[in-house]
Amino acid sequence: MKLALVLGAAALATMFGAAAHADTLGDVRSKGFVQCGVSQGLPGFSNPDEQGNWTGIDVDVCRAVAAAIFGDADNVKYTPLSAKERFTALQSGEIDVLSRNTTWTLVRDTALGLDFVGVNYYDGQGFMVPKALGIKSAMELDGASVCVNIGTTTELNMADFFRANGMDYEPVVFEKADEVVAAYDSGRCDVYTTDRSALAAQRLKLADSNAHMVLPETISKEPLGPVVRHGDNRWGDVVRWSLIAMIEAEDLGVSSANVDQLRADANAHPNIKRLLGTEGETGDSLGLPNDWGYNIIKLVGSYDEIYERNVGPNTPLGLARGVNALWKDGGILYAMPVR
Predict the structure, then answer these.
(1) Are residues 117 and 131 in the same domain?
(2) 118 vs 228, 298, 321, CA distance in Å?
(3) Helices 57-70 and 292-299, interaxial angle, to 10°?
(4) Which of 236, 271, 302, 313 lies at a CB distance of 3.0 to 4.6 Å from 250, suitable for a disulfide?
C-alpha cells in the first residue's frame, strides 16, 4: 500500500510538473486550432448536425476562445467524449479544453490536475418519469429503478437523495448518455435522472416526448463550465476571459449586431472601449491581439445571444434564463471587470 501511495504521489508530481511548464496557447497557435472536448450529443449544449457541424452553448465557449486567438471562431476541432473519458482526455493532452456540461466540484478542481475557469450554465439535477406512472413528486420514487450515467456527479447526487430521504432505489447505469436515454425510453427503468437542462434536451430524443414529465424537485447545485489543465495559467486566463467577455458584453449592451457601431463611437463608455480593444492594452495581459474581445462578440456573440439561440425560450429546449440571468436582472451572472 505504501509503495502504491508513493507511486501515486510521483505520478501526480509528474503531471503537475508537466502542467506547470505547459504552453497550450503556444501549441494551439502552432497547430492553428483549438481542440475542444464536448459531449457525445446533447442538444443545446454540444450537438452535431447531419453534416457534423457542432452547435451549442458549450461549443460557443470554444468558438469564443478561437475567435480571441485567431480572429476566426471556426478554428476549432471537436472531440466527442463520454463522462468517463472526459477528464483523462484533458489530462493526457488529447484536448486543449473541456467544454462539456461538466459540474465544478471541489475534488474535480483540486485532485485531478485540472482547473475550472468559469461557469457558463448554472443547473441542478432533476428526475424525469413517464406520465403514465402518475408520479407527481420525487418523494414518491421509493423502490424505483433509475437510469443514470456512470462516473458523474448525477450518480452521486442520486445516491445522496435516496439515502437522505430513507428511500430504496435500483440504479441502472450506462457509460454513454444515448444509452441511458434509450434504456429509459424502452422501459428498462422507471426514472431518468440528470441535470434539468439535459433532461429538457434528452426529452427531445424520446419516441413520444409529450408522454414524459420532469418532476418539480431540484436536488443539487450543478455549476457547469469549461475546464483546463492545472498549472498552465496563461491558457486558463484565455479561456476564463473569453467566457467573461461574453457575459460582460451583455451587461454593457454590446452584441454582434451593434459591436461595429460601438467600436467606432468615440463617445462610447470606457468599459466598452476596453472590452473592444480601442482603449487600454488588455490583449497584452492575455498574450492576445488587443481586439480579442471585439472578435469574440462579433463572431460568437454576447452571452444573451448564445443563450437565446441555443437553449432559450424560442428553442426546442425552451429554457427560461432563471438564475442564468445577469445579476441586475435577478440572476447570478456577474462579469469581472475587463480593465
Answers:
(1) no
(2) 10, 21, 18
(3) 140
(4) 302
Q: Which domain holds residue 139?
A: 125-220
What sign has the CA pseudo-torsion 36, 157, 177, 172? positive
pLDDT in tens, the chain (339 residues): 333 333 344 344 444 444 444 899 999 999 999 999 999 999 999 999 999 999 999 999 999 999 999 999 999 999 999 989 999 999 999 999 999 999 999 999 999 999 999 999 999 999 999 999 999 999 999 999 999 998 889 999 999 999 999 999 999 999 888 899 999 999 999 999 999 999 999 999 999 999 999 999 999 999 999 999 999 999 999 999 999 999 999 999 999 999 999 999 999 999 999 999 999 999 999 999 999 999 999 999 999 999 999 999 999 999 999 999 999 999 999 999 999
164 in a domain, yes or no?
A: yes
d(CA 121, CA 173): 25
**Cα 22 from chain centroid (whole Å):** 23
Q: 96 with 34: CB under 8 angstroms? A: yes
Residue by residue, DSSP assigns 88-153 as: HHHHTTS-SEE-SS-B--HHHHHSSSEEE---SEEE-EEEEEEGGG---SGGG-TTEEEEEETTSH
In three-state secondary structure terms, 309 is helix
Residue 145 cell numbers, joined: 429503478
Domain boundary among 185, 220, 255: 220
**Which SS3 state, helix, strand or coil, does residue 162 take?**
helix
